[in-house]
Amino acid sequence: MNSCRALFGNMKCSPFETYFAEQKVWFWGVFRKDAAAFLFYGILFAFLLYYFPEDQVHIPPLKRQPHSHDQRIFLNVIIALLALVSMYINIFHGTPPHKGDVKHLFLRDNVNGHFGYLTVNILCVHVYYWPMCVLAELFRARRLEEDSQVVRKLIGFVYFTSILSGSFGIVLTILFLKFCWYEPKWRETVLELYQSRGFKWVGPKVLFLHVNQVFVSFLDVMVVKDKELLVKWTPSIYTIFGINGLIVVAYVVSVHINRFASNGQVPYPFLQMVLKSWKKEIIFIGAVAIFTNVCAMLLYFLVNLPA
Fold it and tell me: Is the pLDDT of residue 1 over 50?
């Protein structure tokens, strides 16, 4: 038994040590869908950046001492690495389901693999968003925005989307705690099931993947971002409301598509009850959209506090 196995038990250093042969076949089938969904997000980010309106106003020079911007770059790098590690753990170190498990059926039959889960969508957004933040701050440190339209767009884009990214990070943490961690059916069908199969670290692992998001969201707007640029580039609260609402609706539409493709399977147990009637579904969509925008309002308030 190697040192990694002795320390972590069934949380293996190699992602496939606990997979049976048929589970490996299942995984790579799901992974192909994951790769396509990940590529879709990359194309979407490239499209949004390409059409992001360039601000004609000169981006103000750095006012603080150079070492303060170095600290900003360092924090961006650390959080970008956290996003990459979180995504890697979620995809490659997930608990392998047995044939017939809900997870096995859902991921096998849906159209976008692990991206059927809200968690993976938000983590994927952050995998693109945070490296873009790193590049934006590195370019700004070298004043490259003075001569490059692309750099100006990049800087504007990451500051424009800061509250949008942060609000869904907060929502992810709170919805996970409410509808999964403290939900008896989820604990029975997911947490306790995999713990009984020897995956003793599944609890701490999923907590880490979800709870770190709320801290990152507040850290971004309060510490990491340049206050002057954040105030300048943050969209109106009504624009934020509209974009967040569209994102919530888009995810619910994807749930319906996957539900149809996988013969009634849903990513989270509580959604079976929600989707039983259109009235409950409309109430649910409205509640999540409102809650997401309440989180956005909190971040918006923090952004606009006097320095």
Answer: no
Q: Span 170-189, mean pLDDT?
A: 92
Q: How far apart are the first and last CA of the chain?
A: 55
Say how far apart CA 50 and CA 263 lie, in whole Å: 38
The confidence band for 223, taking pLDDT boundaries of 50, 70 and 90, is very high
Does a structural domain hold residue 293? yes
Q: What is the 3-state secondary structure (H, E, C) of 143-191?
A: CHHHCCHHHHHHHHHHHHCHHHHHHHHHHHHHHHHHHHHCCHHHHHHHH
d(CA 195, CA 205): 12
- The helix/strand/coil state of 38 is helix
Residue 152 lies in a domain: yes
In a domain, residue 24? The reply is no
CA 190 to chain centre: 21
Name 250's Cβ contacts closer than 8 Å, sequence gap at least 6: none
Asked if residue 13 belongs to a domain, the reply is no
Domain range for 70 is 64-303
Work out the number of other CB atoms within 10 angstroms of the CB of residue 37: 20
The tokens of 132 are what?
């873009």
**Domain total for the chain?**
1
Is the pLDDT score of 65 beyond 90? no
- Give the tens place of pLDDT for each residue, 70-112: 899 999 999 999 999 999 999 998 888 888 888 999 999 999 9
